[in-house]
Design goal:
The protein is globular. α1 runs parallel beside α6 and α5 packs across α6. The mean pLDDT is 97. It has 2 domains: 106 residues, 3-Layer(aba) Sandwich (Rossmann fold), CATH 3.40.50; 90 residues, 3-Layer(aba) Sandwich (Rossmann fold). It has an 8-stranded mixed β-sheet, sandwiched between helices. The protein contains 6 helices and 8 strands. Helices cover 35% and strands 23% of the residues. By secondary structure, the chain is of the alpha/beta class.
Length: 201
C-alpha cells in the first residue's frame, strides 16, 4: 500500500496551478504526494479536462443552486473530498470564500496560493493594487488556510520585479510563472513535514 499523502485540489477555472501540482506529483516517483481528486464549483472549468487527461478523478459541486446558503454548499463540497480520502487539500484558483466551519475540518492540512507578497494585498485585484502603491517588487505566497481570509502561516514566497509601464495583466503573467514554480515546491516540502518558509526569486 502506498504511503504517499493523498492530495485533493480545488479549482474554479483553467487550473494552471493545479496542473503544476499534479504534474510535479505524477512525474516524480519519490514525491511524497499523490493527486486523488480535482474538485470544482464550476462544471465548465477547463482544469477538469486537464485533470482527467492525467488520470486524476474529478468532481463538480456547483455553488449556484445553493444561493447564499454557504453552509449547505460546503456540506456537499466536503463529501467528494472525504470520499477520496484526502490527507491534504490545496486551493488552486478556487474562487469561493470558505467558511470557518469548512476550514476547521482540514485545519493544518489545507494550503492556498495567493498572488501577492502577503500580508500585503489580501483579497482581490492584487496586481492593480501593487501598481497603485508604486511597489518595486511583487509576487505570490503559499500559506496555510485559516478561517481568516489570506491570513494563515506563510510557507513560501516568490518575488518578481515591477517594471515601468507594467499593466496588471503584465504583472499577473509574470507572477503566474512563479506561482507554477512555488506551489509544487512548497507542497512537496509541506508533505515531508518541512515548515520553514521557502523563498524563490
Amino acid at each position: 500500500m502506498s504511503d504517499k499523502k493523498r492530495v485533493a485540489i480545488l479549482i474554479s477555472g483553467g487550473g494552471s496551478n493545479m496542473v503544476s501540482l499534479v504534474d510535479s506529483m505524477l512525474n516524480d516517483a519519490d514525491h511524497p504526494g499523490s493527486p486523488c481528486l480535482v474538485l470544482s464549483n464550476n462544471a465548465d472549468a477547463g482544469g477538469l479536462s486537464k485533470a482527467a487527461e492525467r488520470g486524476v478523478a474529478t468532481a463538480v459541486v456547483d455553488h449556484r443552486p445553493f444561493g447564499k446558503d454557504r453552509a449547505a454548499f460546503e456540506a456537499e463540497l466536503v463529501q467528494p473530498i472525504l470520499e477520496a480520502g484526502a490527507d491534504v487539500v490545496c486551493l488552486a484558483g478556487f474562487m469561493r470564500v470558505l467558511t470557518a466551519g469548512f476550514v476547521r475540518q482540514f485545519e493544518g492540512r489545507m494550503l492556498n496560493i495567493h498572488p501577492s507578497l502577503l500580508p500585503k494585498y489580501k483579497g482581490l485585484h492584487t496586481h492593480a493594487r501593487a501598481l497603485e502603491a508604486g511597489d518595486l517588487r511583487h509576487g505570490c505566497s503559499v500559506h496555510e488556510v485559516t478561517p481568516l481570509l489570506d491570513d494563515g502561516p506563510i510557507l513560501g514566497q516568490a518575488e518578481v520585479p515591477v517594471h515601468p509601464g507594467d499593466t496588471p495583466d503584465d504583472l499577473a503573467a509574470r507572477v503566474l510563472v512563479q506561482e507554477h514554480r512555488l506551489y509544487p515546491a512548497v507542497l512537496e516540502r509541506y508533505l515531508r513535514g518541512e515548515r520553514a518558509v521557502l523563498h524563490l526569486s
